Amino acid sequence: MMIHLAGYCLCVFIGFSLGLIGGGGSILAIPMLVFFFGIDPVLATTYSLFIVGLTAVSGSIDHYRMHNIDYKTVLLFGIPSVIVLFIMRRWLLGLIPPTILNTGTWVLSKSLFIMIVFSITMLAAGWSMVKKNSYTHSPAKLSYYRLILQGCITGAITGFIGIGGGFIIVPSLVLFAGLPMKRAIGTSLVIITINCLVGILGNLEVVESLNFIFLSVLAALAIVGILIGTWSIRFIPDKQLKPVFGWIILVLSAVIFVRIFLEHLYE
Q1: What's the rounded Cα separation, in Å, for the pair 77 and 183?
Q2: Can you tell me the mean pLDDT for 55-70?
Q3: Is pLDDT at 60 greater than 90 in this prediction?
Q4: How far is CA 21 from CA 43, 122, 149, 209, in A?
């Protein structure tokens, strides 16, 4: 079917996005699985973790060869981020009621609130990357405690919105950890790999219901995409990657805002 073919092509683009800008995996993979292959949204989350995780591992290997991974940042930023993400997903998120606000004519549900926070976060991250005066590569001034705190904040945000985190991790590493864009991308892929592993371990009861042949095909296509994306960044300067990343986030955040508006306009 043509819709499945489009889904397979999008899967390659998911890998390409991860390789080129260090993010975009989960935010593209879940809609791809749901709308192009008819996968249940809950099951799609687990499929996404496998696809993005395997793809990020492949990309991490290439970035390791290019010396684009900052291991100190992985430990100081990534580990606290993953711990807080796990706490948020395991316990804190469940404390939010299904209906947050009901005025009689308008209902603010938990899922709607999460999507609004997600789109606002993307908008802020994208704008910060597009601004010309927002990037300062000054790791010498970096405080370890500040980096750990920023990892915790990022973990809380990514855990709350339920996305792998590349769109939040990369701007955080560039703007706060002082990493060059390409090094931030390589480091982000390692952190995303850890995030996906934690997510899979938290959903082991769903793993048995996965179609591993189908999963292998999608993962292979995504890996092809990330190899192309990782190869491409060799020829793109950091200064050009940063605004491209920012504009992609801004466009996606606008699409999410429009989708939220249309869905609730026609309810």
Answers
A1: 14
A2: 92
A3: yes
A4: 26, 14, 24, 32
What does residue 202 show for φ and ψ, rounded to 5 degrees?
A: -85, -5
Residue type, 14: I
SS3 for 100? strand
Helix (H, G, I), strand (E, B) or coil at 109: strand
Q: How far apart are CA 88 and CA 251, in angstroms?
A: 27
Q: 214 falls in which pLDDT band (50, 70, 90)?
A: very high
Distance CA 125, CA 119 (A): 10
Residue 216 has pLDDT above 60, yes or no: yes
Instruction: State the Cα–Cα distance between residues 174 and 178, nearest whole angstrom.
Output: 5
User: Distance between CA atoms of 31 and 22, rounded to whole angstroms?
Assistant: 19
Instruction: Judge whether 152 and 84 are in contact, CB under 8 Å.
Output: yes
- For the chain, the farthest-separated pair of C-alpha atoms sits apart, in whole angstroms, at 58
| Tokens found for residue 41 | 């949204």
Q: What is the dihedral sign for C-alpha 99, 114, 36, 259?
A: positive
The two structure tokens encoding residue 240: 């050009």
* Rounded Cα gap, residues 118 and 254, in angstroms: 11
pLDDT digits (tens, 9 = 90+) for 144-191: 788 888 889 888 877 776 666 677 788 888 877 788 888 999 999 999
Nearest to 198 by CA among 58, 85, 41, 62: 85
Compute the distance between CA of residue 22 and CA of residue 249 in angstroms, rounded to an integer: 12
Q: What is the pTM of this model?
A: 0.79
